[in-house]
Design a protein that fits this description.
Elements (H helix, E strand, L loop, with lengths): L2 E10 L2 E11 L4 E5 L6 H8 L7 E6 L2 E2 L4 H5 L2 E4 L11 H11 L4 H14 L15 H13 L5 E5 L7 H14 L4 E5 L3 H7 L2 E6 L2 E6 L1 H9 L2 E8 L3 H9 L4 E8 L4 E6 L4 H12 L2 E8 L3 H9 L2
Parallel strand pairs: 3-8, 3-9, 6-7, 7-8
Antiparallel strand pairs: 1-2, 1-4, 4-5, 9-10, 11-13, 11-14, 12-13
Helix pairs in contact: 3-4, 4-5
Length: 308
C-alpha cells in the first residue's frame, strides 16, 4: 500500500511546521525520514496517520484520500510515535492483548498474534512483567509490538531504536528490513548509520521544507560533485607531481594532503582516472604507494543541508 503526499502544509500559529512537502513512498520501500529537531518530521508523521490534520495539501493511502476514509485507512497503519503510548501498570501480555482488541483482531487470533509479537520483538523473558518495570529499550520493543500487532500494511516508526543497546538495534534493523519487503515503512531516526543500513531511500527536511530526496549513494554523489582519491607518489618532486596530476584530463582539482609525504587529494570525474595516474607514474618512473578513494559521509551531507 503506497503513500502519496501532495503539497502538505501545517502551521502552528505563524510558524510553518511543514511547508509544501510532496512525497511518494511505494509498497515494499523503507524510507528514512531525516531532519534536525523541530524540522517537521513528527508533524508530518502525525498527519499521515491522521492523528492531526493538515492546513493545506492532500495525503493518499492506497489511492484513498485520508480525510475521506479516516477510520478505514487507520486500520492499515501501525504507528510508533516518539512518545511511546504505554500503560506502565499493565503487564506486557495484557497490554498487547488490549492493543489487539482495540485493533479489532478476531478473538480467535489474538493469542497467536500476541505470542508472535513477543517472539519477533524479543520480549519473551519480560512478557509477564509490568511495563513500568522494563528498561527503556524493552519498553521500546513493546511499542514496536503494539504498532505491528494488527499486521498493518504501513508502518510509521518515529525513533524506533531509541534507548536500545547495539545488539538490540541490530535485531530491530533486521526486523524492519524483513518487514519492508512487503510493507511500506517510514522510519525517522537521528542515527544516520542506521538509515544507511536499513533504508532504501532518504528524505531530508529542514525548517519544514524538503532539502534532499534520494538513495544514500545518490545523495553522496550530489554532495561530492566528483570523486576524491588520496594519492601518495614517491621518488618525485612534489611540485612536479602536483602539476602532472593537474594535467590529467579528467582531474578537476589537486590539493596537497601532506607535502612532506608527497600525498595529494585528487578530485576527478571519470572512472578511468586511476589508470591514468598509474600510467603517469610509470612514465615518470615514480612509485605509487597509495591510492585510496574518499567517501562522503551521510553525516556530512546532513550537516551541510540542515545547518542553515
Amino acid at each position: 500500500m503506497d503513500i502519496v503526499i501532495e503539497n502538505l502544509t501545517k502551521r502552528f500559529g505563524n510558524q510553518k511546521a511543514v511547508d509544501n512537502i510532496s512525497l511518494k513512498v511505494a509498497t515494499g520501500e523503507i524510507l528514512g525520514f531525516l531532519g534536525p529537531n523541530g524540522a517537521g518530521k513528527t508533524t508530518t508523521m502525525k498527519i499521515i496517520t491522521n492523528f492531526i490534520s493538515a492546513d493545506e495539501g492532500k495525503v493518499f493511502i492506497g489511492g484513498k484520500l485520508i480525510d475521506d476514509h479516516p477510520l478505514e485507512i487507520k486500520k492499515h497503519i501501525g504507528y510508533l510515535p516518539e512518545s511511546n503510548p504505554l500503560y506502565p501498570d499493565m503487564p506486557v501480555m495484557d497490554y498487547l492483548e488490549f492493543c489487539a482488541r482495540i485493533n479489532s483482531i478476531d478473538k480467535k487470533l489474538i493469542e497467536s498474534r500476541v505470542i508472535e509479537m513477543i517472539r519477533i520483538t524479543g520480549l519473551n523473558r519480560e512478557k509477564h512483567k509490568k511495563i513500568g518495570e522494563l528498561s527503556k529499550g524493552y519498553r521500546q520493543r513493546v511499542g514496536l509490538a503494539q504498532a505491528m500487532i494488527h499486521d498493518p500494511e504501513i508502518l510509521i516508526l518515529d525513533e524506533p531504536t531509541s534507548g536500545l543497546d547495539p545488539n538490540q538495534i541490530a535485531e530491530i534493523r533486521k526486523l524492519i528490513r524483513e518487514l519492508g519487503r512487503e510493507k511500506t515503512v517510514i522510519l525517522s531516526t537521528h542515527i544516520l548509520p542506521e538509515v544507511e543500513a536499513t533504508c532504501d531511500r532518504i528524505f531530508i527536511i529542514n525548517k519544514g521544507k524538503l532539502v534532499a530526496d534520494g538513495t544514500a549513494e545518490s545523495l553522496k554523489k550530489q554532495a561530492q560533485g566528483s570523486d576524491i582519491l588520496r594519492v601518495r607518489i614517491e621518488d618525485g618532486d612534489p611540485d612536479q607531481i602536483f602539476k602532472s596530476l593537474q594535467s590529467i584530463h579528467s582531474v578537476t582539482m589537486v590539493d596537497f594532503a601532506d607535502r612532506n609525504m608527497n600525498k595529494f587529494d585528487v578530485h576527478c570525474r571519470a572512472d578511468d582516472v586511476k589508470r591514468e595516474i598509474f600510467r603517469l607514474c610509470v612514465d615518470k618512473h615514480w612509485v605509487l604507494t597509495e591510492m585510496t578513494p574518499f567517501e562522503t559521509k551521510l553525516e556530512d551531507i546532513f550537516r551541510e543541508l540542515t545547518m542553515n
